[in-house]
Amino acid sequence: MADLIDKLLGIFRPFLIVKNLFRKPMTLQFPYDSLPPVEGYRGRHILDLDKCTGCFICSMICPNKAIWLVEFRGRMYPQVDLGKCCFCQLCEEYCSQKAIKLTPQSMMVTMDRKSAILGPEQLSETPT
Ligand code: SF4
Ligand code: SF4
């Protein structure tokens, strides 16, 4: 009996494949279409200029030396090199002011290394 079922399935299997022709595609046309980020995804940083005290903790704790402070509007603020960052989130964890955070923004494509460096003003803008 089991043999008969196997044989029948063998005969009908090619016809079952035809149903895939009428299914919606499983792939998306990236970058025009993409899935929402998974919960907890660590992407591009955002900096709250009002909260940041310029304490240097984030730059000292960064294992990749991807974050350092620069002068902006007469004060010191972090700047991040996304090309060096490994998105470990240590800068966010150690910031006592909760001024720097990682966002779910994953679109960080750039054609040159210099534009991967985000200054305080760029970091303060909400990623789109
Ligand atoms: S982002 Fe936080 S840790 Fe970094 S300089 Fe500002 S206050 Fe200090
Ligand atoms: S996420 Fe990690 S590697 Fe990136 S800037 Fe912060 S501390 Fe450095």
Q: In DSSP terms, counting alpha (H) and pi (I) runs of 4 or more, how many helices? A: 4
Averaged pLDDT:
92
CATH fold label of one domain:
Alpha-Beta Plaits
- Which CATH architecture of one domain? 2-Layer Sandwich
Instruction: Classify the secondary structure makeup into a structural class.
Output: alpha+beta
Across the major sheet, the strand order is 2-3-5
Q: What letter string, H or E per element, gives the SSE order?
A: HEHEEHEEH
Note the gap between the termini.
61 Å
Shape, please? elongated
Portion of residues in beta strands equals 15-25%
- What is the radius of gyration computed over CA atoms, rounded to a whole number of angstroms? 24 Å
| Largest sheet descriptor | 3 strands, antiparallel
